[in-house]
Each structure stands twice: as C-alpha cells, then as structure tokens.
C-alpha cells in the first residue's frame, strides 16, 4: 500500500529538460515534488543545439551562466545547398526579438545533469536510477504509481498530480493508446560524433550548419573540445535504400553529399553511430484528471530547426503551472490545461509548417534566396530563434513568407519546376 505521507503532491516522470525544469519550478514555489529518472546523469542524449528563446527559461531557473560555461556560443544557423553549393546564414541578431540574439550548443550529458541538479538544489526530491513502471488514476483521488530502483525493490506512491516528462518513451500516451504518428514527417535519423571536421570561422563560427541533401538533410553541431556532432535525417525513401550496418549507411550518405563530404575529408569517428526511428508523433490529448504530458512525452517534431529542448522546457513551464494550480483549484487547472495544450500544439504546428516542407524544392529555393521584403527573412529568423508565441510582429512577415511560398508552389506545379529545382 502506498503511504500518502511519504508520497509527493506532484510526481514527475523523467529527468530530461522537461521534467527537471518542471520539478525545479514547482519546488521553487514550495510545492512537494518528486522527480524520478530511470537513468543516471550524466548520460548521453541527442538534441545538442539550443535556441535563443531558451535563454529566457535559463534566466528563470538561474542557470544561464552555468550553460554559458559548458556550451559553445551559437550566433545563428547556416543552410548549405547540395544542389548549388550555395551557403546562407541566418543570424539571430537579425530576428524581430532583440532580447535573445544568441544561443548555445551543449553536450546533453552535462546540460541534463545541470538541470537535474538545479531541481534538486531548489528542493525537489530528485532520484536517479528509478524507473516508473505503472500508473493508475483514481477518479477524485490520488493516483497510484509504481516505481522500481535499479538496485532495489519496487515501491508505490500516491501523488495528487502526475507530470509525464518521459520523452520519446511516451509513458502515458503509449499506455493510454493516444499516440498518432505524424504522416507529414515520416523521417528517421543516424548520428555520431567526429573530430577533425572542417569548422566554420569568423562571423559564422559556432553556427549550426544544415546541409540540404538528397532525400534528407545533415546537421553539423560544433561541441566543446573540437568535437562535431553530425547527423543525417532522411526520408522514408532514403531509409528504404539502406544496405549494411548503420555505420556503413551513415558513411554512404556522407559520401553522396558533395558539401558534407568536402567538410569531412579528414574526419575521425569518435563515438558509436546511433539511430532514432519512428520519428514524429503527437498524443491526441495531453492531459486528463490528475495528469499532463509535457515535452517529447506529448509530441515530437523533426529537429531541423533545433526546436525540441525549447518546446520541452516551455511545456514544462506550462505543466508546472497546471500542476500547482490543480493542488488548490482543479476547476481552474482544467482551464489552464486546455490553454496549455493549445499553446503546445500551436508551437509544434508553427515549426511544423516549415519543417514538413524542408525537403521540397520550392521551400529549399526560398530558404537559399531569402528576401527581406515585408521583413519576411527577419520573420523566418524569429521562428528559427524559437519565437513560438502567436505575436502580430512575427505573424505579418510569416504570413508574407507563406504567401510567397504558395505562389511559388503554384508556379512550380504549372511548369517552372526545372528553374526552381536548380536554384534550390
Ligand atoms: C535525432 C534527433 C536530433 C535532435 N536534435 C535536437 C537539437 O539539435 N536541438 C533540440 O533542441 N532538440 C533536438 N532533438 C529533440 C530533443 O532531443 C528532445 O526534444 C528533448 O530532449 C525533449 O526533452 P524531454 O525532457 O521532453 O525528453 P528527454 O530529453 O528524452 O527526457 C526524458 C527522460 O525521461 C526518462 N524516462 C523515460 N521513461 C521513464 C520512466 N518510465 N521512468 C523514469 N524515467 C523515465 C528518460 O531516461 C529521459 O532522461 C533531437 C531529437 C532527435 C531524435
């Protein structure tokens, strides 16, 4: 039997960026919160490039200096076309939001450990090496959660609210059969760390590079100690053509891309080659009586614009508010949860509109030849910086960009294909 006295008011499943942020914010408000993480920090995780909008949440948590100390300064994002060899850089300082004009690349092992330690320091009961194995919700009462330490006996807790931040394990959405694969974005990824990769210099030093390749795209993320994270995100067609091991497949894709191959002539692999499949998804609902899903536990979009950690930490801010209000006023918390779901889904859609089209010739053409007519380029930079609120200042340039995209798409369908494809 669970002991309510030993049970927290809020239980958070998963100590990644979403879970640790939510636990830290709840503990700061004096809430009794327990954070359970199945692994032990520091541990590897993919998702190493952050966005300027993350800085506001770092300030709220009081970790900006600590992230600066472990991170690589990121001034913007560079796009490189395999079709033309052309390169274009979007500097965050050109975005419409002048408060946050840079970000960082981080080794997630150190970054996630920092956030977990922050939750602990703020008073959360944070435990590692403890996997949540089961959960049952009791109408009008406390939930019943079972957890198992790596080296001990299973135990049961009875929290009043559960935040699921279990990432791509999608603990609650999987059990509740709420998951929907995103058919618009059926991609998968292969990635590894390398040394001796050609780095960008001068103004572009520290930019993430996105190489637009055949049937997908590559990321180049500069990490501390001259390590470069390189990954390939491919369409179904790319992965269907796969032969041999994941190692051979990654090297084959590198070889096929002229711009990637050129930067990796001297490269030495310094990690294993990893994969991520079953790529994009979203749960049909993010909350119910006594629980809410945040971060990747709710949904995941392709990381071409490095949006995952920002979406996870922003969702954690919303989830912490809902959980805290639930303890005193469940009716108001339901209203807040509905709003939070709209915001989370809306932010994913905002990135999604650009992401779903990144492998199309028309979108590639527009990205590689950005016009600042009606501040379209600045609007795109703002989305790339993580400006996920529906603000008028960003909306007008983006609507202009979308309109131009639709006009070009129509022209493309009407027969200007060859011109646009060769330009992108
Ligand atoms: C190939 C690829 C590249 C990416 N690149 C980027 C990028 O450049 N920039 C970016 O911002 N994002 C990127 N992302 C996305 C980013 O990794 C995620 O969006 C982000 O980590 C989400 O944070 P989270 O806290 O929701 O989940 P996670 O970071 O996955 O954390 C979830 C935690 O929950 C724990 N857990 C799971 N189940 C249980 C359980 N039952 N009990 C206890 N603990 C549990 C896990 O061990 C994990 O520590 C990328 C993703 C992929 C797949």
CATH class of the largest domain: Alpha Beta
The span between the termini is 63 Å
- Unreliable runs: none
Query: What Rg, in angstroms, do the CA atoms define?
Result: 22 Å
Question: What is the β-strand count?
Answer: 22
Question: What fraction of residues sit in β-strands?
Answer: 15-25%
Give the helix/strand class.
alpha+beta
What oligomerization state is this entry in? single chain
Mean pLDDT: 91
Shape: globular
CATH superfamily of the largest domain: FAD/NAD(P)-binding domain
Q: Enter the CATH topology name of the largest domain.
A: FAD/NAD(P)-binding domain
Q: List the bound ligands.
A: flavin-adenine dinucleotide
Structure description:
A hairpin with a 2-residue loop joins strand 20 (about 285-290) and strand 21 (about 290-295). Strands 4, 5, 13, 14, 15, 16, 17 and 18 form an eight-stranded mixed beta sheet that branches. A six-stranded mixed beta sheet has the order 7-2-1-11-21-20. It has about 425 residues and is α+β, with helices and mostly antiparallel strands. The chain contains 13 helices and 22 strands. About 50% of the residues are buried. It folds into three domains: about 10-70 and about 105-180 and about 280-355, FAD/NAD(P)-binding domain, CATH 3.50.50; about 185-275, D-Amino Acid Oxidase, Chain A, domain 2 (2-Layer Sandwich), CATH 3.30.9; about 360-424, no CATH class. It binds flavin-adenine dinucleotide. The site of flavin-adenine dinucleotide has 39 residues, from helix 1, strand 8, strand 13 and helix 9. Flavin-adenine dinucleotide (FAD) binds near residues 36 and 132.
